[in-house]
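Collaborator request log, item 7. Partner lab (contact: R.S.) asked for a structural prediction of Futalosine hydrolase to inform their binding assays.
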Amino acid sequence: MNIAVLYAVAVEGWLLNETRFSGHSVCLYETGMGKVNAAHVCTLAIERQRPDLVISTGICGAYPDTGLVRGDVAVARREIYGDEGVVLADGFVGLEEIGIALFRDGQREWFNVFDLDQQLVDYATGQLGCLSGTFLTLSTCTGTLARAMQYKEMFAPLCENMEGAAIAHVCVMTHTPVLELRGVSNIVQDRDLGTWDIKEAAKNSQQAVIRLINSLPSEATRQFPPA
Ligand SMILES: O=C(O)c1cccc(C(=O)CC[C@H]2O[C@@H](n3cnc4c(=O)[nH]cnc43)[C@H](O)[C@@H]2O)c1
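Returned to partner:
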């Protein structure tokens, strides 16, 4: 298969860069942090490489009491833009409530939520034996437990990151299959960088990407997901 793998910063991609993939054409893209960088590079990758599959990866913060602990890997079933909307006196209101779609394709409209292909997600979780669920994309990394609890109540997310929804969005716009998997570097709580383990999370997410790619049918087979 022709695969584009996107991650934000170097620590999330070093092992992938040292890996030789056989049976697949794999291009790696270090996007830089945040939604604009991710969307820009994802668009260029799709235009230039025309991948059969985009894999969005990196590290993330897991919300408390989701079953995820530091070092775990999780797969996104849906990506939600957590701060595209309006903040009113009684809280955050998303784009659907204010009637402004981010993207339209015929009759379909996308607001804050971008669902990923559930068949692909089931395939990835089956291969990796990990949790799957809602990933939240934010411009601002959450640094208080109180804010984390608000996000939990609004969106029931497994984890948060700063790029995923933008990549899912570009992939929907371009009809490109996409999977997202991330390693948990931290629990979203009152900010304490001493409790983060970026290296371990980044290593685990990259090992999962390698396992996933090695499980995929080779270029010659071209049936995806495998029956
Ligand atoms: O708070 C800090 O000073 C700080 C220090 C190092 C890294 C960060 C990040 O926010 C990393 C952002 C980077 O990693 C992803 N990520 C990892 N954990 C989280 C999180 O809890 N919330 C949001 N994003 C996270 C994200 O996708 C970025 O690419 C902060």
